[in-house]
Structure formats: C-alpha cells, structure tokens
What we know:
By secondary structure, the chain is mainly α. The chain has helices spanning 2-22, 28-33, 36-58, 67-79, 82-114, 116-129, 138-145, 149-173, 177-185, 190-201, 203-227, 237-246, 250-278, 280-283. The chain has 14 helices and no strands.
Amino acid sequence: MGEARILLRDQAAASAAVTTEVERKLTTWELLWNDGFVRKGVIIIFLAAVWEIYGTLLDNPLLFPTFHDTVQTLFDKVRDGTIPMRAWASLKVLFMGYSAGIVLAAVFTILAISTRIGTDFLETITAMFNPLPAIALLPLALIWFGLGNGSLVFVLIHSVLWPVALNTHSGFKSVSNTLRMVGRNYGLRGLPYVAKILIPAAFGSILTGLKIGWAFAWRTLIAAELVFGVSSGQGGLGWFIFENRNLLDIPAVFAGLLTVIIIGLIVENLIFRTIEKNTVQKWGTQS
C-alpha cells in the first residue's frame, strides 16, 4: 500500500509539472521573436552591421562606402528633396505601367476561361513573350514611343502582364469543381461567376502573380531609367543612380540603391502582407 501511495503521488506530481509547463506564459523575448517583423528586423540589422564592418575595413568610399555614410547621404538627399522627387517620378510611371498590365492580364484571363481558343491563345502568347526580358524591348520602345514615359510604360506592361496572367489563369484552373457547381447552382454566369466564385477561390495565386509582377516591374523600371530616365528634364531613381555614378559620388549611388530596397521592402511587407492577411489568410484559403 505504501509503495502504491508513493507511485500515485509521483504520478500526480509529474502530471502537475506537465500542466505547469503547458500553461507557462511566454516571456517578452519569446513573444517578440514570434513576430515576423521582429525577426526580419534582426536580419536587416545584422546585414547593416556586416555592411558597416566591411566598408570600414575596406576603407575606400569610392568602391564601397560604409552603411553610416550611405545613411547620412540618404538623409541629406531626403532633406533637400532630391530623393523624394526622384522616387515619386519613378513611382508614378510604375503605377501607370503596373495598372495597365493588370488590366490587360485580366482581359486575357477572362478570354482564356471563357473559350478554348482563348486558353490556347494565352498559353501560346505567354510561351512566346514571357521568357523575353522586358529590358530587351527597350530599343524598340524608344523607336516606337520616343524618349519619355511611353517607352517606360511599354516595358513595364510587358513585365507585369505575363506573370499576372499566368498565375491568375493557373489559380482559376485549380478551383475545385464543387465550388464551380455551387456557383452554377446559384445561377451565376459570366462576370458575376468570375467575381464571386473564381476570384475569391483563386486569390492566393492571383496575389502571388501581383507580387511577382510588382517585383519584375520595379526592377525593370530602375534598369530602364539607368539607360534613359529623363523626361521633361527630370528622371527617376535609376537616373539618379546613373548621374551620381558619373559624378563618382558613390555614397549617393548607394543611397539611391538603398532607397530602391526600402521601397521594395515597404511594398512587400506592408502593402502585400496586409492584403494577404485580410484576404487569403482570413478566408482560410492559406495557412
């Protein structure tokens, strides 16, 4: 009996310990570390520290300025209005090309899901043009549209159109037959069927296409502006980088590159992440 009591007491103690461990509150550090923004912030701080150390050891600002010098130059260019003006010039052109590319992708995708010839057309034309780098079309764009925003918008449309159309079409094809039958049973046809059934079910793929199209468009715009970026006497961030490279103001070049990176991080981690949390994650279509 004594041994049985001891055994029961040990089991109760072990059970209490397990319960205590399960109910243990997370520490402040553990709560912070569970936040993706905090983890990404730590990574960025680490990379900035590596940049600073390497630039200090190299001690050659004409080749690789330190992180401190780059941030100081960025601050000065923001304060005098140079970088905000150049960034706004780039973003205006980007918005025009990105919007036009999304509209064309929507038209192509609707045609593809409506008819078999539309599907064949989309698959054929994307196989032809999607592997073609947008910047390779820049010489033709200059001939057709001249030195200005028209050429930039043209190459941006090419960058956005194919990834958005491909991902959207792929998402539509992956929608389950059950959801399709639900829509038909409710009498949905045409655009109402697309808007109420296909788009919500395939929005994860659509959002992926939008993110890929944004990344392609942003880097294509900066590359195009490095070649030509002056329109009406003003260029964007790519032209800002090119001008300062000619002036051998390398800290300003790195400040321009850092601005491009910062804008990319903001769009990816604030805009697209917010859309994702309020759509696919909220709807339960993505874990």
